[in-house]
Write a structure and sequence with these properties.
Helices cover 26% and strands 31% of the residues. It is α+β, with helices and mostly antiparallel strands and 281 residues long. The protein has 2 domains: 114 residues, Aminotransferase class 4, branched-chain amino acid transferase, N-terminal domain (D-amino Acid Aminotransferase, Chain A, domain 1, 2-Layer Sandwich); 150 residues, D-amino Acid Aminotransferase, Chain A, domain 2 (Alpha-Beta Barrel), CATH 3.20.10. The two termini are 25 Å apart.
Length: 281
C-alpha cells in the first residue's frame, strides 16, 4: 500500500490525514455519490491538471452536483503540496454533494460540497509487464452516461481486479455489455499494429483518461496513426503490443492476456512513446 502523507485538505482546513473530518451523513459516504481524480505530482507541480479539472466539471454535470470553483480546487491542491512539501507524489481529489439533509434516499444535501485532497507516496513508476485476464463477471455499461464518470462508486473495477488477482493475474480487461473491449480496471487500453495505435472509442463504456487524451493528441506528431473505434477480443489476439495508460504510471506494458503471450513487450516504439510523454511533463 502507498504511504499516506501526513497532511490533507478537508473543507477549507489542513488537517492530519488520520483525523476523522467527514460527516457520517455525507452523501459520498452513504451512497457513493461523488467524484474523484488521481493526479501525478512531479517536481512539485500537478501534471495534466486542466484535463483532470475538466473531467471533474464534466462529471459534475452528469451527476448534477455542485463542485467548488476551479480557483478553489487549485488552491486546495496547492495547499496539500505545500503542507507536505511534496516533490513527487500521487494526489487524490474527492468531491461529494455534502451532508444528507434527511433520512433515506433523496436528491438534496443540506450544505456545501465536501472537498478532500489527500497525498500518497508514488507506486513503482515502471512496473513489470502485466499478466491480465478478461473479466468474465463484471462489465461496463456503454449505454449509461455514468460509464464516462470517475465516480466514487468504483465497485465494477474493484471486483474485476479482485477476480484477476484470484486467478493469479495482475489486472483485468473489462468488456462492455456487447462483449467488446472497454478498458482496464484503472486505465485505458491501447493496441499497437505497426505504427497504428488503436484504443476503444468513448462510446464503448470507458472513463476517458488524461494520458489517453494526451496520447491521442500527440500520436500524429510521432508519425503514428491513431484509431478510436470498437475493439474486439480478436483485435487483442492480433495486436503486436498492448498497454494500459493512466495518470500515475503513464504506460503499463501487458505481456499476457488470458494465458496467451503478447508478441512484443516494451518494444523500442513503446519506449519512444513513453519518452515523448515524459518530455511533455
Amino acid at each position: 500500500m502507498s504511504k499516506i502523507h501526513p497532511w490533507a485538505y478537508v473543507n477549507g482546513r489542513i488537517v492530519k490525514s488520520d483525523e476523522q473530518a467527514i460527516s457520517l451523513y455525507d452523501r459520498g459516504f452513504l451512497y457513493g455519490e461523488g467524484l474523484f481524480e488521481t493526479i501525478r505530482v512531479k517536481r512539485g507541480k500537478c501534471l495534466r491538471l486542466p484535463l483532470h479539472l475538466n473531467r471533474l466539471n464534466q462529471g459534475s454535470k452528469v451527476l448534477n452536483i455542485t463542485i467548488p470553483s476551479l480557483d478553489k480546487l487549485e488552491t486546495a491542491i496547492q495547499s496539500v503540496i505545500d503542507a507536505n512539501n511534496l516533490c513527487e507524489a500521487r494526489l487524490r481529489v474527492t468531491i461529494t454533494p455534502g451532508e444528507h439533509s434527511t433520512a433515506g434516499i433523496n436528491t438534496s444535501s443540506s450544505g456545501s460540497p465536501t472537498l478532500v485532497v489527500t497525498a500518497y507516496q508514488l507506486p513503482d513508476l515502471e512496473p513489470s509487464p502485466l499478466r491480465v485476464i478478461t473479466s468474465s463477471l463484471f462489465r461496463r455499461d456503454e449505454r449509461s452516461p455514468l460509464s464516462s464518470v470517475k465516480s466514487l462508486n468504483y465497485l465494477p473495477s474493484i471486483l474485476a481486479l479482485r477476480e484477476a488477482r484470484s486467478a493469479g493475474a495482475d489486472d483485468a480487461i473489462m468488456l462492455n455489455t456487447k462483449g467488446n473491449i472497454a478498458e482496464g480496471t484503472t486505465g485505458n487500453l491501447f493496441l499497437r499494429f505497426g505504427r497504428i495505435l488503436v484504443t476503444p472509442s468513448r462510446d464503448q463504456g470507458l472513463v476517458p483518461g488524461t494520458v489517453r487524451a494526451t496520447l491521442i493528441e500527440i500520436a500524429p506528431q510521432m508519425g503514428m496513426d491513431l484509431e478510436e473505434r470498437q475493439v474486439t477480443k480478436d483485435d487483442i489476439l492480433r495486436a503486436e503490443e498492448l498497454f494500459f495508460t493512466n495518470a500515475i504510471q503513464l504506460m503499463r506494458p501487458i505481456k499476457e492476456v488470458d494465458g496467451i503471450n503478447v508478441p512484443m513487450v516494451k518494444s523500442p516504439l513503446f519506449d519512444h512513446i513513453r519518452q515523448v510523454l515524459e518530455e511533455l511533463e
